[in-house]
Amino acid sequence: QAKEAGRNRIQWFDPAHEREAQEHRMMLEQLEEALRLQQFVLFYQPKVNLRSGAVVGMEALIRWQHPQRGLLAPAAFLSFIEGSELENRFGQFVLQTGIAQAADWLSQGIRLQVGINISASHLLQEDFAGQLTGLLQQWPALTPDQIELEILESTAIQDLAAARQALLRCQALGVRFALDDFGTGYSSLTYLRQLPVHCLKIDQSFVRDMLEDPDDHNIVSGVVQLAQVFDREVIAEGVESMAHASALLALGCELAQGYGVAKPMPAAQVAGWITQWQARQDWRQLVG
Ligand code: C2E
Ligand code: MG
Ligand code: MG
Ligand code: MG
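That is the input. Now the predicted structure with magnesium ion docked in place:
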């Protein structure tokens, strides 16, 4: 309590803190307006199977089409949303838009899994499974396993029991889960066993340096084996080059996502990209 009072006093008397707090409030107002004016858009980054060449899915990644500052990546604004009263509304927008996009592609004859990033507070909301049910009913042509919810490994273990319950409720609906940024959250094997997730996403920091850094190479290798032991899928993030792809294949990791395959793109470019990807021979040659 004394600490609390101390913090308030500092905020009150320190002009730098006061300015910061004001900027924070302004940013939240802008973000609220951005939601209202539909300035948020989802970009999509392909997930491919390096061995077969198949396009398995697309991860939805949020962008803010800012009227003055141009297209902004989540690093510029997500931290303001998290923990604010906007968080759940924002999360609902992402969930709804991602699912509608999967249904739209399906209606064009393109069956894709869509990966949607979910924040902890959104997942743990009482009504989360209810929201999901409503959206799946709205698009009956979709099969629930086309939706893969990505949650941060660190988030999942923060409140393991609650996360597990939420995951089980959603899993009953048939949606899939992936543990994002896997390897950065210090989770133990016991945790992993308790979480009903289908896929581990190896954090890009390990993948990026795996060719030069033996420790990172071993971590990637370890996560791939872990996934095999626990019968989970595994995908590498941050696959930037052919050399990464062949190193991953050598370790038994077939699924990949990264700039070497494609950067995130607007939804309207996805169909064209798939056609191009299927015509590309260099990745095929890699796997022989
Ligand atoms: P993430 O879910 O781990 O997404 C992967 C991030 O790595 C994306 O950054 C992607 O553009 C970037 N990336 C992919 N391949 C490569 C590569 O080969 N090299 C490099 N250097 N980077 C690569 P982005 O779009 O800036 O997103 C950052 C994070 O923001 C995401 O990390 C995710 O945690 C969060 N995020 C993005 N969209 C949403 C959303 O709609 N909702 C929530 N709650 N979080 C989101
Ligand atoms: Mg993700
Ligand atoms: Mg990640
Ligand atoms: Mg990340």
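The mean pLDDT is 91.
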